[in-house]
Amino acid sequence: MAKNNTPQQDLERVMIKFLFRGGSGSGKTKTLIRYAENTFEEQDINNDGIDFKYKYIDDLDPNYRLCLQIWDKSTNSKRFTPQAYYRNASAVFVFFDVTDRQSFNSAKEELKGIPHTNEFIHEVYIVGNKIDLESKRVISREEAIEFAQDNAAQYYEISAKENINVHQMFDEVGKALFYKKIDDPNFAIIKPKPTPSAPPPKSSCIIQ
Ligand SMILES: Nc1nc2c(ncn2[C@@H]2O[C@H](COP(=O)(O)OP(=O)(O)OP(=O)(O)O)[C@@H](O)[C@H]2O)c(=O)[nH]1
Ligand SMILES: [Mg+2]
Fold this sequence. Notes:
Layout (H helix, E strand, L loop, with lengths): L11 E11 L5 H10 L12 E8 L6 E10 L8 H5 L2 E9 L3 H12 L10 E7 L11 H10 L3 E4 L8 H17 L4 H4 L18
Parallel strand pairs: 1-3, 1-4, 4-5, 5-6
Antiparallel strand pairs: 2-3
Keywords: GTP-binding, Nucleotide-binding
GO molecular function: GTP binding; GTPase activity
Protein name: Rab GTPase
């Protein structure tokens, strides 16, 4: 129950779109499933190259419910133009595998390809995955932090497999962006208030 006693499902939803980029095999799909469903299965999943999932965070505000829409595009997928993939995204998470230097190099290349224009305004986060494989690590935390700092990005280390830091990372970024959005003076003006005769569809989120 939200603070003003409004049932959570009746709160207005504020959508924040996250995108995944990064090297093939860095663990994007497994991280998405870990966060959205809290599971990790060893067998590989064929998600046809692109997938998205919703995750809700309640009790942040008496009036609004955070709805994270998280997009995962396989590195090798040619579906969706970059313009379509990046549109309306608030944050891009660039993944690499801490046991694979090639994957780190791919993340560097991916970072260069992120569009930064007035139409595409994103925060960028670098994510080193598979820290459960510490004995096989080839990218040190220090090297990754330096790379992130050089690109004005924040760095997170996670393990989708062992469920280390995955929920903390997305919850932290999601909450920060949520408060930034609802504290924006333009927010209430842009956002259409639902009327009793025309409630917003339950399956959708408000896109700002
Ligand atoms: N040890 C370990 N293995 C992981 C972890 N995350 C993913 N993997 C494994 O790494 C492989 C690739 O994971 P995916 O999630 O499919 O990687 P991806 O980034 O989605 O790859 P593409 O879709 O090809 O771009 C799979 O065999 C996973 O089981 C992790 O945290 N630790
Ligand atoms: Mg994948």
